[in-house]
Fold:
Amino acid sequence: MDDDEPLEPETTDETETQPLPQSSDEMLYCEAEAPSAVEKEKAARESSETDLEIEDTEKFFTTGQNELYLEACKLVGVVPVSYFLRNMEESYVNLNHHGLGPNGTKAIAIALVSNTAVITLELADNCIMDEGTLSLVEMLQENYYLQEMNISDNALGLEGARIISEFLQRNTSSLVTLQLSALNVGLLSLNLSWNHFCSPGAVALCSGLRTNVTLKTLDLSMNGFGNEGAAALGDVLRLNSFLAHLDVSSNNIGTEGISKISKGLEVNESLKVLKLFLNPINMEGAVLLILSIKKNPKSKMENLDISNVLVSEQFVKTLDGVYAVHPQLDVIYKAVQGLSVKKTIFQCTNAIKLIQNYADQNKITILDFFKSLNPNGMITMPVGEFRKAMVKQNKVPINRYQLRDLIKRMHEKTGMVNFSLLKL
Structure:
């Protein structure tokens, strides 16, 4: 070989080392496969409190929105929704009736964690259940762009309701409107106190409550929704025949709002407890409330709390007339104007001593006396029925103040009195 001839560099066969062409989907899924160390880390994190944390977020943040959603679908084992792929950069996304289920909802939630486009999200009728609800709530803790969400008709159940309740108490998201349609979620009790949703929020909530057939207990205290919200509640009371316990304390409800609520009470046949404590109610409003109950022969009202209202002796006389029609009722007010301290003390004389004296004279026990008031002879009895029985019995005459104290001693906080709880 000629020394001047340059040496050819060593080469390798490109056909042996060049990777075969792949489709975009294949490339996506190939890249998604994690080494064993990462898989172990993911498995360790699956038991963490935040379910969405199991994803490889560092990789997702470098991936486009569509690719992120496709990766999420692969991860949870669902078929991607083509509509969402086409519209996830729009401000309004309607995924109602898409049959997402809990896993499909989780994939959507993962994709929305870093989404800045979607402002309104419709997810009604997707059977997302409590698992899907948890995924959405976790997403909302990271997404600060989504403002309106509809998750009605989704079989959320009691656990889903608990998740939503805790989320609303934290109130850390940018969400302004949340539609839950209680008709479909099967809620028995809902606490939305201290959420400051004011009049528009109260009106929106009441629109769903008018036809609700499951909710029994609703706490809307400390929200400041005023007379406009009270008017919406009045409509609910006219149309809803299932709600039994309603707390609207401290909501800035004046005489105008009380008038609307009273109209509802004139026809309502299910409400047992109404708490109106710390609302600016005057004597006129207080009279409207008790007369509305008197006008309703089918009223089941047992407890009306207006305990910040100072009433007159004329109000008490009117109330006695209401009690004659509805002996199960107890109205709690602050005090009677001009009532002497001596008379107040007399009204609060210990009822147990009176009952004990009667029992001793008749050689029975106090428990026997109470059981005699119960048609089935049991030691437990609904509060309203017990109050009615005590008012109607004439063996041991006691007043309403004494009866209220007696119930407090035996109340199980379940709408029942338990005679065995009485400590002498």
In short: The two ends are 121 Å apart (CA to CA). The mean pLDDT is 83.
